[in-house]
Amino acid sequence: MVEEVESIATASPVLxxxxxxxxxxxxxxxxxLYIGPILDRLPAATVxxxxxxxxxxxxxxxxxxxxxxTWRSNKFIRDNYPSSAIDRLEHDLEALSGEPxxxxxxxxxxxxxSIFYRGFS
Length: 121
Known about the structure:
Layout: E1 2-9, H1 13-28, H2 36-40, E2 45-56, H3 57-71, H4 75-80, H5 83-97, E3 107-117
Antiparallel strand pairs: 1-3, 2-3
Helix pairs in contact: 3-5
């Protein structure tokens, strides 16, 4: 079984900017942020279950913040985004991650795809 991201939806401008930059970087590396639909089409896939997962925005922001710290010095990021924009994104993610009392509507919707393959155990 493999679990991968089918989609991510957010109304937060900060989280949307993060996702757009991450998606661009991954595409540049010939990778995909939303790989679930591709994996569904592999011949060995026998069952695919897409489950919605709702995460409070402050928790998603914390995860995104920690990820940003690992890839902010990536060459693609340095070449395509002003350091001031990445600094601002880092600041905004850190600030959002410290707001556990975000309104209930401030959630990030994930669709997690659990894909079962034959021939693997």
